[in-house]
Design brief:
- This protein has about 230 residues and is of the alpha/beta class.
- It is built from 11 helices and 6 strands.
- It has 2 domains: about 140 residues, Rossmann fold (3-Layer(aba) Sandwich), CATH 3.40.50.2300; about 60 residues, Orthogonal Bundle (Arc Repressor Mutant, subunit A).
- Helix 4 links the parallel strand 4 and strand 5.
- Helix 7 crosses helix 9.
- The protein is elongated.
- The protein starts with a strand and ends in an 11-residue tail after the last helix.
Length: about 230
Amino acid sequence: MSFRVVLVDDHQVLRDAIKEILLRHEEFQVVGEAGTGPEAIQVCRQTDPDLVVMDIGLPGMNGIEATGELARHAPRGRVLILSMYDDEGSVMAAVRAGARGFVLKQACASELVDAMRTVARGGTFFGARVSDRLLSGVQVGKVRTPARGGHEALSPREQQVLRLTVEGKSNKEVATLLNLEVHTVRSYRKTMMAKLGASNVAELIQVASASGLIERLKGDGTTRSETSGA
């Protein structure tokens, strides 16, 4: 049985490394590649893959948003998330978006291939560490802020956007202050809501406040003048 695969990552080196691994496994056929979320949607609509290996940290539309869009535009393509991080927020957000598996980029080649094969066949695959995060999120009913550092579920840029959101800044104002595009700010807010289990901006602020996240951000030295990327 052969599986048609699309690889989505903004680093060509990583896509090439995965293709090199798959050369040793004839059941996989790479039919397309993409470096951004919109490109992934277009490629999947054109190629109708069985499996999409999706990076979370894509520029603009991130991998979680792209996964949700693929559920509408290319529903046959099952998504396996490939990520540098296994924080509870990212894992739960990926599952909510429709991902069927979640593997760390640090995983060995054999684990990646096992995950791809399982998800392509219609199953689910979560590594041991990822499964712990997923179970924890399910047990508490919503995504909690990880204990270590208090806010590692959010990237540095997301932390900046959250602080300005709490201050009542509009998308346009946040974009101006952080030198971003307005659509990028919207993307950050959507991702934060997914990570923290909020359905709208008001709930995002409520969850962040109730968890103590806002106070921790105020005390960690993050300021509006910072412009480092996520």
